[in-house]
Amino acid sequence: MFRSMRSRISGDELIDQPETSTEDISDNLRDMALINKWFGGAKAVLVHILPLLRVCTSDPIRVLDAACGGGDISRRIVDEARKLGKLVDVIGLDLSAKVLDYAKRSSSDYPEITFIQADMLNPPYEAGNFDIVILTSVVHHLEPEEVITALQAARKISRGHVIAVDIVRSRLAHLGFCLITRILHFSPVTLHDGAISIYRAYTPSELNTFASRTGLSECKLHKHRFFRMALVYKCADHDGVVDASSSD
């Protein structure tokens, strides 16, 4: 039986539990990379970050992938930067040592990426350290006050570009996830955590409220396919700024 989607429901995800095995975490992160590739997670980031990479004058362009998970989005960013002939310095930040071990093993061909164990709510960086800060499939892991803290931290350490992409809480998203993951035989951790993630996710109006409370008055919210949304903050006085307003 489906629970009501009217209000957000908290729940524990297995990947966040210390007793979850390294093998189960690796299986889940492989699944998440495929989900991002096939079902809109990566595209919802790239459609906004690519225009910035094309025109940003920093050399290298510094990008923080906050709560980077298995590093698949970091690798996609490097792939696209290489195509553009742009130098990038990508920092993948995550709190889990097991997750970072997988990310490092999977990114051995990507010297542009450095993985750091740290808390995205209190990142160890000074103000204006990065050209772009991205948060992908992170917000739903956080309670409302933590969302505001995360957005404030991202805004502080960026030079003006913050891109937060996440899933949208909806009954159709949950139904679609259940059907697709069972057809594709994803791991038990992915089946459990994916369903919980949708119940924990926020709606576009809720995310807009958080942005307002954070003081991101110049942000825009974009809706994407496969129940994805992107909150994009653009600082008008930053070199290489474009209006990353494309959506699919």
Q: Alpha-carbon distance between the termini? A: 32 Å
Arithmetic mean pLDDT? 90
CA-based gyration radius? 17 Å
Number of helices: 8
Structural class, please? alpha/beta
Which spans have pLDDT < 50 for at least 5 consecutive residues?
Answer: 238-247
The major beta sheet can be summarized as: 7 strands, mixed
Helix content: 40-55%
Beta percentage is: 15-25%
Number of strands: 7
Oligomer: single chain
The helix/strand series, from N terminus to C terminus, equals: HHEHEHEEHEHHHEE
Strand order of the largest sheet: 3-2-1-4-5-7-6
What would you call the shape? Answer: globular
Description:
With 248 residues, the chain is an alpha/beta fold. The chain is 43% helix and 19% strand. The chain has eight helices and seven strands; from the N terminus they run H-H-E-H-E-H-E-E-H-E-H-H-H-E-E. The protein has helices at residues 22-38, 41-55, 72-84, 97-106, 144-157, 171-183, 188-200, 204-214, and strands at 61-66, 88-94, 113-117, 130-136, 158-167, 220-224, 228-233. Strand 1 (61-66), helix 3 and strand 2 form a beta-alpha-beta unit. The longest helix is centred in the N-terminal third of the chain and has 17 residues, at 22-38. The two termini are 32 Å apart. The model is unreliable at 238-247 (pLDDT under 50).
Helix and strand layout, with pairings?
Layout: H1 22-38, H2 41-55, E1 61-66, H3 72-84, E2 88-94, H4 97-106, E3 113-117, E4 130-136, H5 144-157, E5 158-167, H6 171-183, H7 188-200, H8 204-214, E6 220-224, E7 228-233
Parallel strand pairs: 1-2, 1-4, 2-3, 4-5
Antiparallel strand pairs: 5-7, 6-7
